[in-house]
Amino acid sequence: MSKILSYFDYFICLIFLSEFFYNLLTAENKLKYLKWGWIDLISSIPMLDSLRYGRVFRLIRLIRVIKAYNTFNSFLKNLFPDTAKGSVFSVIILGFFVLIFSSIAILVLENDVESNITNAEDAIWWSYTTITTVGYGDKYPVTTLGRILAMFLMTYGISVFGVITAYIASIFVKSSE
Fold first, then answer.
1. Residue 31 predicted with pLDDT over 70
2. CA distance 65 to 9
3. Using an 8 Å Cβ cutoff, are 44 and 57 in contact?
4. Burial of 157 (0-12, 13-18, 19+ CB in 10 A)
5. Angle CA(42)–CA(60)–CA(149) in degrees, nearest 5?
6. How many helices (H) and strands (E) does the chain have?
């Protein structure tokens, strides 16, 4: 599981580092950008043992997440002037993150001896089949917390597919007018 978290950390760090260099290169005044841009640079430091003492600065990522949220909302408003398209896109992106989070969470929660979700592949398979409400039954949580997570994931999956179905229905209604 720690390998998955490390890869995910490297991926997020690469995104932050790419954004830092992009913003630096496109900034009209590079010194003015660096006044606050250094936060972007520091937040792109991965969790490497050689940078162990720099991990204190990783708390700055919280600031980056808040800034990214505002940037993402602006991005969606520009990309999708139609609110419905933006909502569907947001739900799909959020679904991806819920899938990743629930895969990691079920690995942590299912620590019982009788658990049948024992590796990352099982966790991703379980999360995907649960969020799509298929739930084959070959992998299932045996702990109470795992079952609570499953309930939230099923509810979220039903909501996501409800939003997508409503959007598709609205397209049909518009085209029939």
1. yes
2. 14
3. no
4. buried
5. 120
6. 6, 0
